Each structure stands twice: as C-alpha cells, then as structure tokens.
Amino acid sequence: MPSEDASSEKATRRLQRGTRSKKSTTPLDTSQSGKRRSDAGSIVFNDRDEFALTWIGHQYGIRLDHVQWLLGRYAGHGAVYTDWISEGAARDVVTRWKNAGWVRVERIRAHESFWVWLTRLGLRKVGLSYTYRDLEQTSLDGLKHLYAINEIRLHLVDDDEGTVWVSERQILQGIIRNKGQELLHRPDAEIYWADGEITEVEAELSLKKPFELAENLMELVRGEGYLSLKAEYGWQTARTMSRGDQSQYSEIWYFAPKKVRQQVRRERARLVSQGDLSEQEAKRLFVRWYPLAHTGAESAQEEQEEEETFDLD
Question: 291 and 231 share a domain?
Fold first, then answer.
C-alpha cells in the first residue's frame, strides 16, 4: 500500500497536471488548400463530430464557451491554437450540427452563451441509449452545476492519456432501483486512472445541511458497507461498525467556492474529532477551488489553503 504522503502527492500531481491557462498560445499551421472538396455543401459526419457529440451526450449538454475547448482537441486547418478554437469557428460547427438535426441550441439564460444538447436523432447517431433530456427544463442551479462539471472535466481530466471519465449520466444508467431501497450517494463523476485507481468527483456549489454533508462523506469514504449497516442499525451504530470498510474510491475530490470549502473541511475535521473517520480516511478527501485554479500561482495558493486547514496532527 502506498504511504499517505505518497497518495497525497499523487493527487496533487493529478490536479496540477490539468492546470492550464484559459487560452493556449501554441500556434498551429494555418496553411490551407484552395481545392474544393467533393462533398462541399453536404453534412458529412466525421471523426470530430463523433468525438464531440458523444462527449456532449454523456455530459447532458454543453455551453458554447466550453464547445470552443472541446472542439480544440480536433482543431483543424486554419486554427490559431492547439487546444482551443474561436467562438466563430465553434458557432459554425454547432450550426452545422443543428442543420443536420443532431443538436438543439438555445440561449437559456440572458447574457450567457447558448447551450447545446443532443436531440433524439443525435443520441441515435452516436449510439447512445439515453432518454432524451431537454436542457430548457433544467433549473438555473442545475445548469450552473453542469457547467462546473464540464469545466472540471475539460481542464483537469481530458488531457490525461489512459484516463476514463464516467459521467453522472453513465452512472445513473447502470443503477438498478429497488422499491424502498436507499441508494448510495451518487457522485457527479468518476475518474478511472491508468493505474487502476478510481477518483470520485463532486462539484458542490452550495451549502448543505451539516448532517446531510457528513452522511455523504461517510458514504463516499466507506461505500456500500456503511450504507447497508446504516439501513439495518441506524447511522450512529453504522459509523462504529463500518470501521475498516472502504469504498471503491482511492480519492474523493470536492470542488467548491470558498464558503462551501470551509463547510466541507469543518465536517471532515468534525468526523475525525468524533472518531467517526480515521485520519487516514480523511486524507482521501481533497477540497479544491471552484472556480478552478488556472495558473501556477493559484494552484500553489490552493494547495497551501488545503494544507493549512487540513491539520489532523
């Protein structure tokens, strides 16, 4: 088993590896051929379409500014940057998708970019069996949360080779619901790393009731064993009886604004001081900035904040 310090260092490296500025400045070759394509005027489904539409389908939807980053992974001839495309170029692609009937495009909130999500035809086109979801019916808080999850995936995870992101929509599809059975706290996403470890991702944008948050933390750390004992004996007894149980997650990442970060850290510390969690268990819980740290200086400040508040000695 790796040491606690080694595990903490690995988590820090993983988070920092995805840190990047809002805009890449690495130029691409801008030369273009003037030869007219034989398929000009028709809507041809290409590899970039399959990649991007599948990504969007798994995530429920995406806002235009994130489309710019997503399509940057397949930046074509004439693109100025290596991992980002202009708003105009992104709009052109989205318009093409809309004309093909693969996506819906709506400005849901005033003064914000429009949202893009797959139609039933679009879902079938990329082989996804999800039930159609109309993002126009999503609450504004729900859209903020979805935006945060997309931001985390795009800027911290997608560039890592061998890494698999499993979205909430994918997780929900695999859940079997039995009447009357309490379900384990559902993560916002799971990250499967090349070394076999699994990280749970939470975007926590608002304060929760302290007991609800504490129970979420217990379930994320100890998993199904804790949930089963809680259903049979109640939460107080379950916290004692489940010692030694461990969920599938080697790390649990909470991304949150300042007030929420403070609350999560308070509950983490309280669970340790009460003896409900061990220090080793608590050190699997990492509390990070949202909005994300994008510069080296911000990442260093984020790390210092966590070290200063995570004093379990």
Answer: yes
Considering the domain architecture, whether residues 116 and 264 belong to the same structural domain is answered as no
In a domain, 28, yes or no: no
Give the residue ranges of the chain where pLDDT is below 50: 1, 21-34, 37-39, 313
In CATH, what number is assigned to the domain containing residue 131?
1.10.10.10
Contact between 114 and 108 (Cβ < 8 Å): yes
pLDDT digit string (tens) for 202-237?
999 999 999 999 999 999 999 999 999 999 999 999
Phi, psi of 142 (to 5 degrees): -65, -40
Name the residue with tokens 């039930």. Answer: 131
Q: Full-prediction pTM beyond 0.85?
A: yes
To 5 degrees, how large is the angle CA 250–CA 265–CA 242? 50
For 232, other C-beta atoms within 10 Å of its C-beta total 10
Range of the domain at 109: 45-138
